[in-house]
Amino acid sequence: MQKHILIIDDDAPIGDMLSEVLTREGYRVSRAYSGTEALLVLPRAKPDLVLLDLMLPGLAGEEVLPQLRGIPVIVVSAKADIQDKVDLLLGGAADYVTKPFEVKELLARIAVRLREAPSPDAPYLSAGGLELDADSRTVSAADASARLTRTECAILRLLMANPTQVITKSLILDRLIMDAPDCTESSLKMHISNLRRKLREITGRDCIEAVWGIGFKLREPEA
């Protein structure tokens, strides 16, 4: 399946060059020229990876980054300060490339990040001590299994595809528009509560961690 990359950069020549190179490499490419535009484009673009500049008109890259949880983000910026890099990596960025950059190196970093991130559309996922068969909507742990509703399966698939990330409530709703149109902001809490109960019944533990004020993440089993 063709991978989709969103370039968020107001520098038109750099964006044009990246778009041309990535298209030639077989990627599908979308563009956003400001932080504000990026947040408008994001729900319908549903990228597999984002290339994010920091010095953007409207919302700065640092303000956009928290809205991209669940998506691998490579920051591509002229800011070279080590503390900036550390803060961004701790803040959720998957990688950091300083401008000017070597195209071959950036392509390699993109390939690595995409290889590390399982597709949320994959029918079989394994993470957090769970095995998910999305086609049959069955989740298994050890010798026990549970059937999930369409919405519960879509939520769990998104969490398992991004096992180290906190997925915001808004991102869950945006990603589930097609798979689970019955999942609304008011019903999301109920769907997740039911999903947590089913997972607890087959594992004996709470598999989904609620991060107060942000969203949810998959909880790894204790060693």
Describe what you observe in this structure:
The protein contains eight helices and twelve strands. The protein is α/β, with parallel strands linked by helices and 223 residues long. It has two domains: 4-116, Response regulator (Rossmann fold, 3-Layer(aba) Sandwich), CATH 3.40.50; 124-218, Arc Repressor Mutant, subunit A, CATH 1.10.10.10. It has a five-stranded parallel β-sheet, with helices on both faces. A four-stranded antiparallel β-sheet has the order 6-7-8-9, with helices on one face.
Short description:
The chain has helices at residues 12-24, 35-45, 61-64, 82-90, 103-116, 150-161, 169-175, 188-203, and strands at 4-8, 28-32, 49-52, 73-77, 95-98, 124-127, 130-133, 138-141, 144-147, 167-168, 208-211, 215-218. With 223 residues, the chain is of the alpha/beta class.
Work out the number of β strands: 12
Q: What integer value in Å does the Rg equal?
A: 18 Å
Number of structurally distinct domains: 2
The percent range for helix content is 25-40%
> Beta-strand level of the residues, as a percent range?
15-25%
- What name does CATH use for the topology of the largest domain? Rossmann fold
Unreliable spans are none
- Sheet with most strands: 5 strands, parallel
Average per-residue pLDDT, rounded, comes to 86
> How many distinct helices?
8
Q: If classified by CATH, what would the architecture of the largest domain be?
A: 3-Layer(aba) Sandwich
Q: Which CATH class of the largest domain applies here?
A: Alpha Beta
Structural class: alpha/beta
Give the overall silhouette: elongated
- Strand order across the biggest sheet? 2-1-3-4-5
